[in-house]
Design a protein that fits this description.
Elements (H helix, E strand, L loop, with lengths): L4 E3 L5 E7 L6 H12 L4 E13 L5 E14 L1 H7 L13 H4 L3 H15 E5 L5 E7 L2 H11 L7 E3 L5 E5 L2 H10 L5 H20 L33 E2 L2 E2 L5 H11 L3 E5 L5 H4 L1 E5 L5 E5 L1 H4 L4 E5 L6 H4 L2 H7 L1 E6 L2 E6 L3 E4 L14 H4 L4 H4 L14 H16 L11 H12 L4 E2 L1 H15 L11 H17 L4 E2 L1 H18 L18 H18 L6 E2 H10 L5 H13 L3 E5 L2 E4 L1
Parallel strand pairs: 11-14, 14-17, 18-19
Antiparallel strand pairs: 1-2, 2-4, 3-4, 5-6, 6-8, 7-8, 9-10, 12-13, 15-16, 20-22, 21-22
Helix pairs in contact: 6-7, 17-18, 17-19, 18-19
Length: about 575
């Protein structure tokens, strides 16, 4: 009914269709209707144009395909089963299914996949179990139900319809074991797919480590178990203490709280007008300028959480703010430039929910390179398990529960600390010759690394060095920025480069990583184009992919797989083009 059926609340008819190819399912379904509800259906056949068959003599014949319409008339049964078939675009898995045991869930999924599902086994990248639906909510519910059996799936959204696909070998095996198909045709296809999955599993070398279960202790009485998960961020706060992940949001909120002029906003709910300025019409009809977060935070701090969730057009409003310290607006007859001398502290999540240490930072974070390079400091905050740290956090949380009546006092009063920061910001220390020499020496030293054809620091980082050294002098309420302040600023920049500016391919510090193009990649790209140029010759002959991959592998800088991936990437970037199938030329 959820798939190929109809059942409308308030009516008296319900039914489903069974295709000609799956007539073997008709009798089992009729027996279910009779045994469960004591109803006899009305069965009719309907034909529609099917496949076009080409005969030996060249004639084309259109075969007519038939479907069996099975319809029941019972108002009581319709009322009972109407929850299974709501509006096709908004329908979902009923709550009663989620509350049912695995045997019921497996049966529900089997018949749902039988109605709207299929099996592909057509070679590499074309092997999958698929469920199609116009309701994305239904597919998400099914995805959740599949996880009961350890089956991982992926949802692909498209204008013509949404698909849930199961591609992984282990998940295909689990689907066969726990759910399967009702019809012999789909069951046979699934059996062939499982053979492939088993072969792949035997061939693969697993890097996972396993531990043997030595003992299972059974509880005498049932106890409550809590499973808490927050979508996207996967962290939660217990009594103000971060119990999982890196606590980026909590750190941002705390910084906004202690800053003399601090504002906190979330990227998901921020717009360009909300960040800079907006023109609004008041009750009298006069156009007025309304300041946004970075303007209100002038000479203060603006904390932006979920920075990667902002829309690109809204995020682009920060380019001028971070470069020119101002926000310009021209709208509704108002042309103005507002001060936005604001420090910005932002936090973003990695793509796919987990930071991949084998990829550079620009491949992990979905942020535009021009905006990323405008930050003075960029650090990767990872949730790495640490026995000692985890023990201390756990003890602290347990201590809070043990002494729930007592309040935890801060080492420094928040109001006093805010006043201290406000007083420090009034200072305007000057650079001493010693500090200038330290900063200049470091800058020139890092620029000399260009002898290895890598850019490590730019004038933008030089400006950041001066700002950081001055900020430290302000914190210590100094009149001058001395050599010690310069050393601390250098330490911060160097720590950032060693954390976020290391090319994972070479293990060397390379600011090109933060600019989206590490030197190792640039040199590979140059080698790639040189090889293609030599193979083309003066006549620009199209180069066959097989020969191209072979020549790239000979350079020892590419494996065959890397060479193929690089070809696809250069095609996407329009650096090369496919002059004819399987042959390439430079643009």
């Amino acid at each position: 009914l959820t798939g190929d059926g109809w059942c409308r609340k308030g009516g008296y008819r319900l039914g489903f269709i069974v295709s000609q190819k799956e007539e073997e399912l008709l009798q089992p379904l009729l027996q279910m209707g009779h045994s469960l509800f004591g109803l006899e259906p009305k069965i009719s056949q309907r034909g529609y144009p099917g496949q076009i068959v080409v005969m030996n003599d060249g004639r084309q014949i259109t075969r007519t395909m038939y479907v069996n319409n099975v319809e029941y008339n019972s108002k009581n049964v319709v009322e009972m089963l109407a929850f299974l078939k709501e509006n096709s675009k908004s329908r979902s898995v009923p709550d009663v299914i989620f509350q049912s045991p695995n045997s019921v869930v497996a049966s529900y999924l089997k018949w749902l996949f039988e109605a709207d599902g299929t099996v592909f086994n057509k070679g590499r990248a074309k092997r999958a179990i698929q469920l199609k639906s116009t309701s994305i909510k239904l597919l998400r519910d099914v995805q959740l139900l599949l996880l009961r059996f350890g089956i991982h799936s992926r949802i692909i959204q498209h204008e013509t319809g949404n698909n849930l696909v199961i591609r992984r070998g282990p998940s295909i095996i689990k689907y066969t074991k726990h759910i399967g198909f009702a019809s012999s045709i789909k069951a046979a296809k699934l059996s062939e797919l499982v053979k492939w999955a088993l072969e792949i599993r035997r061939d693969q070398k697993h890097d996972e480590e396993y531990e043997k279960v030595l003992k299972i202790n059974y509880l005498q009485e049932p106890q409550t178990v809590y499973d808490i998960e927050i979508p996207t961020s996967h962290k939660f706060i217990a009594n103000g203490i971060v119990s999982h992940n890196t606590a980026k949001s909590e750190m941002l909120k705390f910084c906004a709280r202690i800053a003399p002029r601090g504002l906190y906003t979330s990227g998901r709910g921020s717009t360009a007008a909300g960040l800079t300025a907006a023109v609004v019409r008041d009750k009298t009809g006069i156009m007025m300028l309304e300041a946004g977060a970075v303007v209100l935070g002038d000479q203060g701090l603006v904390c932006i959480d979920e920075f990667d969730k902002m829309k690109p057009e809204d995020r682009s409003a920060l380019h001028e703010v971070m470069e020119q310290q101002s926000a310009s607006i021209a709208k509704g007859g108002i042309v103005a430039t507002l001060n936005a001398r604001t420090s910005i502290l932002a936090a973003a999540n990695p793509m796919y929910g987990k930071y991949d240490p084998f990829k550079n930072i620009t491949e992990n974070v979905a942020l535009p390179i021009p905006l990323l390079t405008r930050f003075d400091l960029i650090f990767v905050v990872r949730d790495i398990p640490s026995k000692e740290k985890d023990r201390n956090i756990a003890r602290h949380i347990i201590g809070l529960h043990r002494h729930s009546s007592s309040e935890t006092k801060s080492l420094i009063d928040i109001d006093l600390f805010t006043k201290y920061l406000a007083y420090c910001k009034k200072a305007d220390p000057l650079l001493t010759p010693e500090a200038e020499e330290k900063i200049l020496e470091y800058y020139l030293k890092m620029r000399n690394v260009e002898s290895e054809e890598m850019i490590t620091v730019t004038p933008r980082q030089l400006g950041g060095l001066i700002r950081l050294a001055t900020a430290r002098a302000r914190l210590l309420m100094k009149d001058q920025v001395d050599a010690e302040d310069a050393d601390r600023a250098i330490f911060l920049i160097q720590s950032m480069l060693e954390d976020a500016g290391v090319d994972v391919n070479t293990g060397k510090v390379d600011l090109g990583v933060l600019q989206g193009r590490p030197h190792s990649e640039v040199s590979k790209m140059q080698l790639f184009m040189d090889v293609l140029k030599s193979l083309e010759g003066d006549n620009k002959t199209p180069v066959e992919e097989k020969l191209f991959v072979k020549e790239l592998a000979k350079t020892t800088k590419f494996t065959e797989e890397e060479a193929k991936n690089f070809i696809r990437r250069m095609l996407r970037e329009a650096s090369i083009y496919e002059s004819k199938p399987g042959h390439y030329n430079r643009v």
